[in-house]
Amino acid sequence: MHSNTIKKSHLYFVLLLSCGLWACDEDTEPQVPVTTETSGIFVVNEGGFRQGNTSISFFDSENKAMNNNIFEQANGRPLGDQSQSFGLIGGKGYILVQNSSKIEVIDANSISSITTIDAGITSPRYILDVGSDRAYVSDWGQFGSTSHIKIINTKNATVIDSIEVGSGANRMIRSGEKVLVANSGGFGRDSVVVFIDIAAGTIDKKVTIGDNPNSIQEDADGNYWIVGSGYTAFGPAPDFEIDLENSSSGFVAKINKDGQILFFESLGEKGSTGPRNLEISPDKKTLYYRFGGATSGDIYKIDYRETSLPGTPFISKKFYGISVHPVTGNLICGEAPDFSSAGNMFRYSPEGTLMDRYAVGIGPSSFTFK
């Protein structure tokens, strides 16, 4: 969120998943149940903020069918409020339900609940497997101003340690024996990418870039690309007018493993929302990001050795979330017409050709591949 977030009065709110209808374009086909043999795509539908209607959908790649609201169907209870992401580790699914302050752990095949992690978790965003029965969870904390990486024991589903990293710890990647964390600012402002030494469980270094970096990827040369949404400052009550002098633009940047900035370009006007959802192709040579609106944006792409940003979109359509299939390179995109009705998942080829479209839940923002 995914962010995948709404920036209003400099607050990030990630909206939630929801129930769902099922459909493929205009057609009507029988719904195919999730099975242990099925490969596909888990869709996180954020839903309406504080509406308690977050949901998970599953696209059956073999049968080309969408199954909606699968958590509630499998477990007989709603998922909660404002899911942010879904992780797969060791045959288990981890659903990070941010506004419900919990992580739902499920069997990735049957979708049945295994346990709920809620002790030591406040505002979970993303999860990353780091091996040795450990996973990192970015957790904004109560107000997003002091966030942590929570270390989870995936055997007994407990929080065993915590690393304070800054404000709004968001997307993470593993690079060798380091984890890089983008500090998105939470409900405020940060400008740091944190390098964590996995073996030591401590911060190796912090690299200052632009305001509110939200996602990060490693390219084929071993360099790191980061996009940031920028910061919007507001004046005093009661008007809360945008303070342009103290606001900043979004950005796209590239740094090397030592943290040296190789490329940096501002993107967007001060006081507007910068790029989000940085994704990368399977060969790590093409990067994609979403840009052009507060909650939804067009898709842009850039070659990993390019030295300037593209002036026109790769796909001109307003999406709330995007991802790239790690094998096919297909772009998976979530459309949220609003946050009270069903959205859609679109699949595009790497060339940008629309393949198909399926109705999902409310606010589809992130995708996980099985």
Helix content: under 10%
How many beta strands in the DSSP annotation? 31
pLDDT under 50 segments (min length 5)? 1-32
- Radius of gyration from CA coordinates: 19 Å
Q: How many strands, what sense, and barrel or not for the largest sheet? A: 5 strands, antiparallel
Order the strands across the largest sheet as they lie in space: 3-30-29-28-27
**Count of helical stretches:** 1
Explain what this protein looks like in three dimensions:
- By secondary structure, the chain is mainly beta.
- Helix content is 2%, strand content 48%.
- It is built from 1 helix and 31 strands.
- It has one helix spanning 70-75, and strands at residues 6-8, 11-13, 23-24, 40-45, 55-60, 65-67, 83-89, 92-97, 102-107, 113-117, 124-131, 134-139, 147-153, 158-166, 169-175, 178-183, 192-197, 202-208, 213-218, 224-228, 250-255, 261-267, 276-280, 286-291, 297-303, 315-319, 321-324, 331-335, 344-348, 354-359, 364-369.
- The protein has a 5-stranded antiparallel beta sheet, with no helix packed on it. A 4-stranded antiparallel beta sheet has the order 6-5-4-31.
- Strand 16 and strand 17 (192-197) form a beta hairpin.
- The longest helix is centred in the N-terminal third of the chain and has 6 residues, at 70-75.
- The protein is globular and about 50 Å long.
- The model is unreliable at 1-32 (pLDDT under 50).
